[in-house]
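Re: that chain you flagged

S.,

Sorry for the slow reply, it's been a week of failed gels. I finally had a moment to sit down with the sequence you sent. For the record, here it is as I used it:
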Amino acid sequence: HVQLVESGGGSVQAGGSLRLSCKASGYTYNGVCMGWFRQTPGKGLEGVAVIFTGGPTPSSIYYADSVKGRFTISRDNNKNAVYLQMDNLQPNDTAVYHCAAQGRATGCGRYSWRRVADYSSWGQGTQVTVS
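Prediction finished late last night. Pasting the structure tokens below so you have them in one place:
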């Protein structure tokens, strides 16, 4: 049974920071694309960032243009975890943030990582509110 559990959401003022965590269990963590997506009411899922968990060093790291320079995705393979450091948060970052995992791969596609249908496992989401 694949399980992804997010934590770290909360409420902050504009300009503040939060760090989201996604802990994976129940499957082979190494060698998959792990992505962060966000969703607001009435909107579909928006890809925020992705990272490949295979290899000795992080690779296939991509960001949505709206978060480049403010958000940083990272991994800790010893803990089967992926993180999203969010700095200089703005009100339009308010959303439910989900982490998601694809199946085994050799990397994350630069132009395809946002494709929701490619992700087979999803966490329940954590709320981020910026005022």
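What I noticed first: The two ends are 37 Å apart (CA to CA).

Talk soon,
D.
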